[in-house]
Amino acid sequence: MILTFVNKGESGPEGINYLFSEKDANGKERNPPAELLEGDILLTKYLIENNSRIKKYSSYALSFRDNEKVTDEQLKEIVQSVRDTFCTGLGSDRINILAVKHTDKGNTEVHLIINDEDMLTGRRFNPWPPGERSQKLQQDFCACWNHRLGFEQVVSNPFKASFSRFDAKVPKERRKKFLQKIDEKEAVKALEENKDSNQRREKLSSITAEAVMAGKINNRNDLVKFLERNNCRITRKGKDYLSIILPGKEKPIRFKGGCFKEDVDYRSLIAEHNTASKHLRPDQFRKVEARLDEAMVYKRELHAKIYAPKEKKIRLPKTESVKIKAPQQIKPNNKVKPKEQRKQTIQPVVKSNSNVSKKQKNFNNFRSIGISSSLGTHIAEKIGSVELQLTALYTQLSNAPNSKRAEIEQKIFELKFQLTVLQQQQIEDKKAELNRDKKDKFKI
User: Fold this and answer.
1) Which residues belong to any copy of the MobA/VirD2-like nuclease domain (predicted)?
2) Do 15 and 115 have their domain in common?
3) Which terminus of the chain has a smaller tally of CB atoms within 10 A, N or C?
């Protein structure tokens, strides 16, 4: 058994439709047809259609050799182990996985579709990020399950994943017939058709493995001659790599690895590969299992840090401290005559209209600030309530029967529309608040 990464889905739910189609990519009818092993088709499609990112989902394949027989219960256990290992700390209410079983090619294959989005926070999720840590996690995962099921181990070799997948998926009889028909020009033409550099690297590794096993290439010099005969140009030769410009291309691609080393002997590498242990000893299994547990702890802590829901903080507008000046005391004028002084005291004090309007204006400003703050808090509470309702509805949708799905999806649509309106209202209120704060300086 081997778990491999297939691709990142960028289109709509067409890939899901293909997994359940009656015919395969070559137009051959699938017999027996595809079988849903785990997950929800409608939920998977819904999450893909409502994901605005370019990369919407990840596709993986669990491939078993022809002689490796597994039950549906064992397959479901392995799929759950994939979730526990690569999505550790994030349950089914946050990361959606669809598992589809294919047996029409003679062996068992389980195709996994994992949505690249955390349903709770809406953040992008990558179950298998690039790097050596993820590669080692995948290798240890496969090693543990092959040991538990009593299957032969997938032995690593200098031809990397291409050789391993080729060796694991194709039975010996079919492989010998295939290698006898290998054609150099067709192989190089296949390289030209793969525009992506990673695909070209993988294809060249596969072609090298096939040519070596067919006895056409024995060392790196033979490989260089093989490529130059087919219009490939070698721009640089390192101790463990070759830089190659493929036909019709301008930039060189660096091919690095055991099969590209300067003093490599392909026959000895194949001999080492064939004599490598196909089963783990008990002490080896304990070591691999401990390493897998350690990697899962690291991944769980990383997920807890990245995908922890953040509390929403309401930022109120800053108000400047108001300085109140003490009123100036008016010194009495002793020189004022008694009659004038009497008139002055009798005359009623009339407050100017300007002062009244200023105080009224200040009062209205304070009142409006208080109202807007309370309204902002109310809107934030409403937004939080709607988001909680959406999370609950997504969980209900994943477990709901077909008769209730349309009703739940309609509620989700209405709540998402309501959430958009509230968020827009919150933005407008904040803009108005900031403009008011800039325009008016509170003075008493």
Assistant:
1) 52-142
2) yes
3) C
Query: Can you tell me whether residue 117 is helix, strand or coil?
Result: strand
Residue 288 lies in a domain: no
39/258: higher pLDDT:
39
Per the listing, tokens 């997938």 go with: 154
Residues 122 and 18 in one domain: yes
Residue 289 lies in a domain: no
Taking only the tens place, the pLDDT of each residue in 62-74 is: 999 999 999 999 9
Report pLDDT digits (tens) over 139-186.
999 999 999 999 999 876 555 533 333 333 444 444 454 445 555 556
Q: Phi/psi at 227 (nearest 5 deg)?
A: -75, -45
The β-bridge partners of 58 are 8, 114
Number of domains in the chain: 3
Residue 149 lies in a domain: no
Cα distances (Å, whole numbers) of residue 203 to 1, 188, 189, 208: 22, 9, 11, 9
Measure the CA–CA gap between 47 and 50, rounded to whole angstroms: 5
Tokens of 406: 């349309």
How high is the pLDDT of residue 131? 82
3-state secondary structure at position 370: helix
**Closest C-alpha among 182, 176, 174, 188 to residue 233:** 188
